[in-house]
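so my prof wants the structure for this chain in the tokens format not the other one, which i didnt know existed until like an hour ago. anyway here's the sequence
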Amino acid sequence: MEEVAKCAAQLSQLSVVKDLTVNSGIFIWKLAGMSRLMVTKKDKTLYSPHFFTHEEGYKMQMEVIPGGYGSGRGTYMSLFIGICKGPHDDDLDWPFQQKIILETLDLTGGGQHASWTVVAGKDLKWMKCWQKPVDEDNDLRGAMEFISHTDLNCKKSRFLVDDTIYFRVSLGH
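here's what i got, hopefully its the right format
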């Protein structure tokens, strides 16, 4: 029950987040109408609003492909995150070094969130993703096989309530 209360508190804070700065190292993205999106936008990339890691911090964005990408195409939802060119880039340390946890929230209260974690500074194969952006955004990093369509489509999916899904980005050191 503590996890449900924590998620509910985070969701209620969305209404007071005005500048899309991560609140306490957490950003939540709500996507409604998932059954429609799984049909009409399954092969399209859906973009979260841009958000910042902290006030005057790194600018980021999440991307989801409902029908999957690469090895996840047709059987999984894919989820990615990327660094975008931001107004404070000249004042920040590069490369980006924080731990990133991408999650889809378990809305049943069971605390069994789907998650993917990377420590940006130790992600040597993908180091280019964490450098100061030259273009509008860098290459993305994430999970091509994030959540199976089976887990999303069942009537008792722990990730969907009222045809809505919530993604969470948690940042740490």
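also thought this was worth mentioning. The radius of gyration is 16 Å.
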